[in-house]
């Protein structure tokens, strides 16, 4: 029989006043009281009992009976760990209460229960899903973030979860990193301010509707080489240059979090020059605990200890981590035949028994854990607060909670481009337009607008949870307008006043979201949609709403887009988008990630402003049309440099095409392509030549597309040039017609391997003949 605690509300019940949760049963325990309780408890515990407190297994791999047997201190439900009975809030509450009852009845110390509630209590069906942090960074509103944190904590406590693994305080300097959207952006002060607002809102005064927060992942994750998740930070920890970045930038948000009494800090999977943070004593004990004075719980990342480098056994890794200062071990899966949590438990026990771990170190860890539990009131009133707070279920995903999320969506929208149409800007005219065509991969898809960490760890497309899609939100906010949904852009010319294309990244989380620069682009179907609309109605203004977790390359689309809005990953309440587009709300957001023209310039974007498409802080108002500061740095003007296109100055390329010696492209094989953005001085026929190399007798067959349309197919023989770096100029006999203006030139190899140093286009005559075919598909290039 499950024991469901009937809650007796103390004083005012938990009431939501227009999005503001009034806390009840405030815990105002003095530090002396906390200390006294903790040391009394600690003194009465056996070594085994203490070690149990340091273990945090995942609910997927421990039973309530085992919790009692090992006197476990905490459990978590990691991404996608849904109850077996269903995924409703009640299922979560029932599951947790079983574990909690087992702990309390078994040994009288309640469990902490951790979840990744990173944008709402996002593992639970139909919870209120808020914008991911990238959008909240843009909104830059501390009060709003506090509200979001409070609402999230109350939805968590309704299911028993009292510990959230958020906020992420990383400062992403390379958006190839798949966790960029979990952060507030690249700026340390902003992350400090908003992260701490979250912590305050979530922890409140440690009442029965609050949840302890986690500042994560300590430290440096946003500067890992090439943006690799769990990757290497290419400095020794004690390197002077690194210590300067650490002190001046990386620590800023953590210091603020500690000042605001954050109760836990999660250690990063990253390494410093190969040495993993999980075993780093200087970092955990000396810096975090001694120097910064952190008094809460230091927790590993999920199986983070496993990654400690060197030829160490699992036991040795755990011991190393305990000695580095780790207080709690988040563990799942198996170590050989036994659940890893048991292996971690035994490792610590053996470590103490054979003198490798000092018992004081264990006492330090367990005091921290007990203090947090006591301060949260989990022992109070016969453990009443330790169970799921079922009174709060009535408010789970309530209209009031969703109103907070909707407000956050509206406030996070960031206007990056806003063209002038006749005498005023597009965004100031939009709400007066009647006939709107809507399309794009995220227009009508709840999964897409929520991104990762939604219901499952990775999230997914489709109807995965309750909410309002962005398209449905348009109809809700502007019921008098005609919205037409298109999947392919087959629209009639002159029928519409504007197109709104909601386009985004498919959901991902953690390393599954790491990308190569060439992969940070719109999907083929979204690009085709833009092109089709342009083709069918060239003068129709297009508004792009980007539901992306980070900057992506839109250099080749930007001229076709009359307005660009960075929406982040808005969550469940899509109507917030229309509150700005068609309602009375003004654009409020500012960009928090420097947005390069090309993702291949991510590393230069902070030092070379010509590589920046949208600068940090950009955020226009409806009637503002401030143009971008620089021009496309990859635009090649064929009226200059004798029409030479240096091969390495591509805008995009097939992933297998390589750049060699910083000057030529190599591995240019059948079906592989490179694209160039070119300014063609006049519509004419051109002579195409290539400075090319091959070390066997070869042919050079090429297909050339202009803006996706096949213009030219040709082939020329090439004799062995004498080596892969012996270039010779090869002139193609066929002439190519090219149209005047700015275009994307896509050159596809149709033959065997050859290297290209440069292409050249020289005017031949003015007999310009456009291709006589209707547009064809681009093949597999
Ligand atoms: C992530 C953490 C998360 C943990 C628990 C890990 O893979 O790195 O951020 O809190 O899983 O789900």
């Amino acid at each position: 029989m499950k024991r469901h605690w009937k809650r007796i509300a103390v004083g005012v019940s938990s009431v939501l006043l227009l999005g503001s949760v009034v806390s009840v049963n405030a815990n105002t325990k003095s530090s002396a009281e906390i200390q006294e309780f903790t040391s009394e408890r600690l003194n009465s515990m056996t070594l085994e009992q203490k070690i149990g407190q340091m273990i945090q297994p995942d609910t997927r791999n421990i039973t309530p009976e085992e919790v009692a047997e090992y006197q476990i201190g905490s459990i978590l439900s990691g991404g996608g760990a849904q109850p077996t009975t269903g995924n409703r809030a009640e299922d979560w509450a029932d599951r947790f209460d079983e574990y909690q009852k087992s702990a309390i009845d078994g040994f009288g110390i309640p469990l902490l229960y951790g979840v990744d509630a990173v944008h709402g209590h996002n593992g639970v069906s139909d919870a209120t899903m808020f914008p991911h942090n990238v959008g909240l960074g843009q909104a830059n509103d501390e009060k709003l973030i506090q509200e979001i944190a409070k609402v999230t904590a109350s939805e968590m406590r309704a299911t028993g979860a009292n510990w959230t693994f958020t906020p992420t305080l990383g400062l992403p300097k390379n958006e190839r990193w798949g966790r960029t959207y979990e952060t507030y952006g690249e700026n340390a002060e902003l992350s400090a301010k908003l992260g701490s607002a979250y912590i305050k809102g979530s922890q409140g005064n440690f009442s029965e509707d609050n949840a302890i927060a986690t500042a994560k992942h300590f430290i440096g994750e946003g500067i890992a080489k090439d943006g690799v998740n769990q990757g290497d930070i290419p400095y020794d920890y004690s390197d002077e240059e690194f210590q300067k970045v650490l002190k001046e930038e990386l620590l800023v948000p953590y210091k603020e979090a500690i000042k605001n009494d954050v109760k836990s800090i999660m250690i990063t999977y990253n390494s410093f020059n190969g040495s993993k943070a999980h075993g780093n004593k200087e970092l955990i004990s000396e810096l975090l605990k001694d120097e910064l004075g952190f008094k809460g719980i230091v927790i590993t990342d999920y199986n983070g200890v496993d990654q400690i480098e060197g030829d160490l056994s699992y036991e040795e890794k755990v011991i190393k981590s305990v000695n580095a200062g780790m207080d709690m071990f988040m563990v799942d899966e198996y170590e050989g035949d036994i659940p890893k949590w048991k292996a971690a438990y035994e490792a610590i026990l053996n470590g103490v028994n054979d003198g490798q771990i000092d018992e004081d170190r264990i006492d330090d860890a367990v005091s921290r854990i007990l203090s947090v539990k006591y301060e949260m009131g989990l022992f109070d009133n016969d453990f009443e607060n330790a169970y799921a707070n079922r009174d709060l279920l009535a408010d789970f995903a309530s209209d009031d909670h969703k109103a907070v999320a909707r407000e956050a969506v509206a406030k996070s929208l960031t206007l990056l481009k806003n063209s002038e149409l006749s005498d005023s800007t597009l965004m100031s005219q939009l709400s007066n337009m009647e006939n709107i065509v809507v399309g794009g991969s995220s227009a009508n898809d709840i999964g897409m607008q929520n991104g990762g960490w939604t219901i499952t760890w990775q999230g997914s497309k489709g109807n995965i949870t309750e909410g309002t899609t962005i398209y449905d939100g348009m109809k809700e906010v502007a019921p008098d307008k005609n919205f037409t949904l298109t999947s392919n852009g087959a629209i009639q010319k002159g029928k519409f006043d504007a197109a709104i294309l909601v386009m985004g990244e498919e959901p991902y989380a953690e390393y599954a979201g790491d990308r190569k620069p060439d992969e940070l682009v719109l999907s083929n179907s979204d690009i085709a949609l833009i092109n089709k609309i342009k083709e069918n109605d060239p003068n129709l203004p297009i508004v792009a709403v980007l539901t992306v977790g980070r900057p992506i390359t839109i250099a080749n689309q930007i001229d076709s887009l009359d307005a660009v809005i960075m929406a982040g990953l808005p969550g469940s309440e899509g109507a917030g988008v229309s509150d700005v587009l068609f309602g009375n709300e003004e654009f409020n957001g500012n960009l928090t990630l420097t947005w390069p023209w090309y993702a291949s310039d991510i590393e230069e974007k902070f030092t070379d402003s010509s590589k920046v498409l949208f600068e940090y802080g950009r955020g226009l108002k409806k009637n503002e049309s401030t143009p971008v500061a620089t021009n496309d740095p990859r635009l090649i003007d064929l009226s200059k440099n004798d029409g030479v296109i240096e091969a390495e100055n591509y805008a995009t390329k097939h992933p297998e095409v390589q750049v060699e010696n910083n000057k030529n492209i190599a591995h240019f094989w059948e079906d592989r392509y490179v694209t160039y953005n070119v300014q063609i001085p006049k519509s004419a026929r051109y002579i195409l030549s290539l400075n090319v190399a091959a070390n066997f007798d070869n042919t050079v067959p090429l297909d050339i597309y202009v803006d996706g349309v096949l213009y030219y197919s040709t082939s020329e023989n090439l004799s062995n040039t004498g080596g892969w770096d012996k270039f010779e100029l090869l002139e193609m006999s066929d002439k190519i017609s090219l149209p005047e203006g700015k275009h994307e030139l896509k050159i596809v190899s149709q033959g065997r391997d050859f290297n290209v140093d440069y292409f050249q286009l020289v005017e031949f005559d003015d007999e310009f003949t456009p291709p006589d075919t209707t547009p064809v598909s681009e093949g597999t290039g």
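Confidence is low (pLDDT under 50) at residues 1-25, 775-781. The chain has 19 helices and 37 strands.
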